[in-house]
Design a protein that fits this description.
The complex is a heterodimer of chains A (176) and B (60).
Chain A lengths: L3 H10 L6 E3 L15 E7 L3 H10 L3 E5 L3 E5 L7 E7 L1 H10 L1 E4 L5 E4 L2 H14 L4 H14 L6 H11 L4 H8 L1
Parallel strand pairs in A: 2-5
Antiparallel strand pairs in A: 1-2, 3-4, 4-5, 6-7
Helix pairs in contact in A: 1-2, 4-5, 4-6
Chain B lengths: L12 H5 L3 H18 L2 H6 L14
Chain lengths: 176, 60
């Protein structure tokens, strides 16, 4: 049986379309490991219909949709839920150009964002959903602890002021 | 100097079949998800607001 990530990648390969692995499943690419219950991915908004085709063909059901994300659930216990975040093409192109290939095992290679982009996504989530703060802030701190010198203090401060809530840079600095 | 005999070598098949660490990590995550789905606890977790994606578009 194919894994959720294999369904995603093999299916999209037919359409020559890419996704970025984000969220908890992408953390091992930054030497951070924690449990998670779903697979989060990011795709250009115009390509989402292709992803939908792939997932529905594989037995996934769409259970929630908004302008910016879709949640797919599989009846199989062997397949993770898949949350799809949509971004505009320009943002996606910038992120994919800075991404790197990551081997999830079983020869499943998927692109993950750069450390900066990963932190931006998490700050964006914290800023717009306070209830995500504990988990996402902890992820950011762990990413920074395990990737010392990958981001300068000045860059982190700029990212925090642009994407995060007020005062988050200081909180991160204190925790790291 | 004592002339030591050549040390024997052993073929340990487990070594050659040892999984890479990323496979182990994702199998650990998958096993947890299987248990949550089997027990239906996943329904409760899906409803948690802290797990809900943000409905504001991320723009670089």
């Amino acid at each position: 049986m194919k894994s959720a990530q294999e369904i995603l990648l093999n299916g999209l390969a037919k359409y020559d379309t890419s996704v970025l692995l984000i969220g908890g499943m992408a953390l091992p690419a930054f030497d951070v490991v924690r449990q998670t219950i779903d697979l989060d991915c990011l795709i250009a908004v115009d390509d989402e219909s292709l992803l939908r085709t792939v997932l529905v063909e594989a037995g996934y059901n769409e259970i929630e949709r908004s302008k910016n994300f879709v949640r797919y659930v599989s009846p199989s216990i062997y397949h993770y839920d898949i949350d799809v975040l949509m971004v505009d093409q320009k943002t996606f192109d910038s992120m994919i150009s800075c991404s790197s290939a990551f081997d999830m095992g079983h020869n499943t290679i998927i692109n993950v964002p750069s450390i900066s982009h990963m932190i931006m996504l998490k700050l964006h989530a914290i800023k717009n959903n306070k209830k995500r703060e504990l988990k996402d802030l902890s992820d950011i701190v762990e990413i920074l602890r395990n990737n010392v010198s990958e981001i300068s203090d000045a860059e982190l401060e700029t990212i925090c002021s642009r994407y995060g809530p007020e005062g988050v840079y200081k909180r991160i600095q204190e925790a790291v | 100097m004592i002339d030591l005999p050549e040390l024997p070598t052993f073929d340990v098949p487990e070594y050659h079949h040892k999984k890479q660490s990323n496979e182990i990590i994702y199998e650990w995550i998958a096993e947890n998800v299987r248990n949550l789905k089997r027990s239906k606890q996943i329904d409760r977790l899906r409803k948690q607001e802290s797990r809900h994606p943000v409905d504001i578009r991320f723009v670089l």
